[in-house]
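dumping the sequnces here before i forget
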Amino acid sequence: MKTTTISIAILTTIMLIGCGKNDKTTTDEQGGSPAGGDGLSQTQLTHGIGPIQPFNLEPLDDARAAAGKEIFEVKCIACHKIDERLVGPPLSGVTERRSPGFIMNMILNPDQMVKQHPEVKAMLAQYYVPMTFQNVTEEDARSILEYLRTLKSKDLTKGE
Amino acid sequence: MSKTMIRVLGLLISIGAFLLIAECAKKDKPMLGSDDAASAVYVAPGDYDEFYAFTSGGFSGQLGVYGLPSGRLFKEIPVFSLDPENGYGFNEETKDMLKTSFGYIPWDDSHHPELSQTDGVTDGRWIFINGNNTPRVARIDLRTFETAEIIEIPNSGGNHGSPFITQNSEYVVASTRFSVPIPQADVSITSYKENFNGTLSFIKVNPDDGHMNIEFQIMVPGFDYDLASGGKGPSHGWAFFSSYNSEQANTLLEVNASRNDKDFIAAVNWKKAEEYLAQGKAKKRPAEYYRNYMDHRTHSAVSELNKSVMILDPADCPGLIYYLPTPKSPHGVDVDPSGEYIVGGGKLAAVVSVHSFPKMLKAIEDEKIIGEAGGIPILDYDATIAGEVTNVGLGPLHTEFDGKGYAYTSAFISSEVVKWKLGTWEVVDRIPSYYSIGHLMIPGGGSMKPWGKYLVALNKMTKDRYLSTGPELAHAAQLIDISGEKMKLLLDFPTVGEPHYAQGIPADLVHPKAKKIFPLEENEHPFVTMKEADARVERDGNIIHVYMTTIRTHFKPDNIEGVQVGDIVYFHVTNLEQDWDIPHGFAMQGAKNSELLVMPGATNTLRWEPKQVGVFPFYCTDFCSALHQEMQGYVRVSPKGSNTPLSFN
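..and the predicted 3d for all of it:
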């Protein structure tokens, strides 16, 4: 019956409007269309979850790579060696395995990456210690990425 | 639409509206004014409390941090105390915070926390607290919840009447409970009346960094000064100090200091004091006292010894200070949010006496002076009094305000909170406390902007309120809903130490500003290790400096050899983590101090004097990750004169 339908619709609307406050959002941090499990889009699977959108690399900037090396040696080296496992995985050749966006999002947003990205979740099961945010800026992360580009793959079988 | 349909529609909308209201009522906690006290104090898992409450630790020398309305304890901040939990007072960086003219004093009796204010409103920048026993005032930084500064008060005994703040945090004031010879001297105690004096200290607060210095002291007769309050609004520029023992008794005070019907509230015109100071009316007197502060760049305390203080004598400074007679041995002196009324809690009186600030000014102008004490004019009680609150209970101690025209006075002897109306002075409600309330606290209740929703009763006796813990019991606080006409008891919660007083502030003014880490690049500790590659061990005679880093989940270095019995080893531990809530601990077998708990980006130092030959482990004490239990190392200790070379990896 048409009127009843309208009435129920109104009632439902009223209920839905509700008080509408104080509910912590549970639908945060998702974007793009889902692809496969985990509710992540193909873009997120490839380029990671976080502030960095997919982008293409320019030719290597040596000065920037040198700056990145300095930051790396203060903030990253305690956990990452170049060619062997320490707390985290070795990083030689990482730019051949991962997209630039993925690497920067991993540096800038590790908490969410560890919780939501299936490949990173799998790495946690392998390494046990979650990647930590080291209070770096986007600029810093970009410089670290540039430095990582200089670390050519030596033995891919040892990688992540 | 047919009538039936309209009726159905109407009915369904009514049902919807009803359900909506019911749903909202359920969600809109707390349900103040209803009988549902449990939901009024329930903070759901993951939700935040609406207010912070800071309670003094009393004889614990600490400051407690609680949430309201839940009553949950979040932290105890060590102030005038040692804290083996984080190394405060034990590690090399913070030891000097407890330096005084009497030496290293690792304890005090902390009574009154006081939040900083801007324009008469609590601003969430700092909280101050007094040390009674070795007179001191501390400032805690509310970005870090750490003690940032401690200044010693010279010419004082029993720094009870402090630290109370002026409207824009220009000053925190401090008054002496125990008058003493000034300067200290070897005199007979029976010469009290000739030789003993009190002081009122005005500690200037630097508005940029909060640093304190004693701008001036006012020498006053040897009464016992008890509490204080800053003026506000029209009374801004004045401060008020309660006192008892105007009899100037020096023995058996319970009888001998309770003879006079009235004692005094001292009204001090501090703007006038500033003028006299500028005119050179103050005398520079020798006095040794320390000021210790944490240098936030080096994460280390800096101690400076001051050697003089400026003292104003009321006899040289007409108009500086007046006494308002107030019955009887008054404790609290509390200025209402309008700044017009000064409420004296006459501890041994049957009434609460309320002075009027405008009437006080008029009385001064009309010279309604009935005498003097130590050169200080005493104003006529009838000329300054605005009203008396009768039937206010026995032992009225302390009053705060809800900003809606009501005052709430604690009555210790009759164990109750009494609500009364400003202006008409009539008592409108009362509620028992369990048991024997001392002070009470309304968030902002001593400022120009109270948040008059909750009142916390800080009770002195606990007895049977909780499961017994033997002869020594936790103190009891009680949360009372004051949002409605009638007060309503919502919650009991135990407190640590003895909270004499507390402060409350909306969480929004503090929580978002709290620091999460210390940026590593800003660390200027002289023994910082900025990266693992710089980790090392250096010997300088029998002193060994270990430059150590931590990150999940290892120390660098974690094996050290070449240490000898008789060496003094300093472990300078820098936490390289830059992630929130990832401190690392450091504990060394045989260390006689405590552990270190190093915050992300900070450096802390543990001193260790190995006494035995052997190999001794150290480890991380704060569970940091899945491999926390692997976070360990060894130091090899050889006999004195051994040729084992110093090495590490």
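Chain A touches chain B at residues 3-4, 6-8, 10-11, 14-15, 17-19, 21-22, 24, 73-75, 77-79, 87, 128-130, 132-136 (CB under 8 Å).
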